[in-house]
TrEMBL record:
The gene is folD. NADP(+) binds at G165, R166, S167, I231. Catalyzes the oxidation of 5,10-methylenetetrahydrofolate to 5,10-methenyltetrahydrofolate and then the hydrolysis of 5,10-methenyltetrahydrofolate to 10-formyltetrahydrofolate. One of its GO terms (biological process) is L-histidine biosynthetic process. Transmembrane segments: none annotated. This is Bifunctional protein FolD. Residues 139-285 form the Tetrahydrofolate dehydrogenase/cyclohydrolase NAD(P)-binding domain.
Amino acid sequence: MTAKILDGAALAQELRSEFKLRAEALAAQGVRPGLAVVLVGEDPASQVYVRNKVNACAQAGFHSEKIVLPPDTTAAALLERIAALNADPAIHGILVQLPLPKHIDADAVLEAILPEKDVDGFHAENIGALTQGNPRFVPCTPQGVMELLEKGCISLKGQEAVVIGRSNIVGKPMALLLLAAGATVTICHSQTRDLAFHTRRADILVAAIGRPRFVTGDMIKPGAVVIDVGINRVPEGQPDAGKLCGDVDFASAKEVASAITPVPGGVGPMTIAMLLANTLLAAERVLNGQHC
Ligand SMILES: NC(=O)C1=CN([C@@H]2O[C@H](COP(=O)(O)OP(=O)(O)OC[C@H]3O[C@@H](n4cnc5c(N)ncnc54)[C@H](OP(=O)(O)O)[C@@H]3O)[C@@H](O)[C@H]2O)C=CC1
Ligand SMILES: Nc1nc(=O)c2c([nH]1)NC[C@@H]1CN(c3ccc(C(=O)N[C@@H](CCC(=O)O)C(=O)O)cc3)C=[N+]21
């Protein structure tokens, strides 16, 4: 058996065409959706992501601003930039690229973003709302995964879902969304005693670990749906060294799973599409006066 490929790149492209139409409709009413992306430092991978986000905005007819600050930027200076973006009516969404340099308290920065402009969904208020089952902005990566599952007609009610990873940006919100959709959810992490015991029980397995090709075919239940969130470089000495790979060993996993997301072309493009979706939502809410 070879698994069906859940094509995130194609679905993201489809969604982005829809967003363009919605942005045009908003612009006709005098509001052009605007996203600000703030990058502190010179990490090359972050630079690529930020460029991709800004390009996606341009293609969909959004206004966007890229704010690049030097690596030695103080927390106070960053907070000042955020305060200015909070007050800027042309900006509906603010994203501060993570990770931030170690000398800056990332939580304090995320809390400084106005909740109604927090298109990443990382502000405590938005996480609280999601936890209570009343979401305002759903974090982009887990939201993208849910869209892919829905598009793939994968039902979640009563299914055993296992999420590997418990980060605030992926693992935890992913588990909350699967739970809300009716799955029975297990969250695994680096202290989990017998990881394979859990993964082999999963009807839906989500890997958000940050370790190249960590999940192998023998850890997967035959027929499971495998979602690979990881974005890693293939280590030296392995086939395709230096290229992008996920947290799942695609070659062995696709022989066992019923459906699987590739890397690249799976969850990553969906994350960017959901960032545009959240920015549109923020702009639509301004037009409809749904906050303040
Ligand atoms: N496709 C996309 O759009 C996105 C992709 N990513 C990618 O997803 C991956 C995860 O990102 P993120 O959540 O930010 O990463 P973090 O490093 O914040 O979290 C990784 C999680 O994996 C767990 N973990 C690490 N090693 C093991 C192990 N050996 N066994 C079991 N669990 C383990 C950690 O456990 P513990 O908590 O105990 O340390 C932690 O909870 C990365 O590859 C990242 O690049 C991230 C964001 C978006
Ligand atoms: N505040 C904040 N919000 C984020 O959403 C956020 C962040 N910080 N920090 C880093 C992670 C990572 N992330 C990705 C987004 C898109 C791709 C993506 O488009 N990947 C393409 C490949 C891109 C390439 O070729 O490098 C793919 O998988 O096909 C990957 C990773 C968002 N993150």
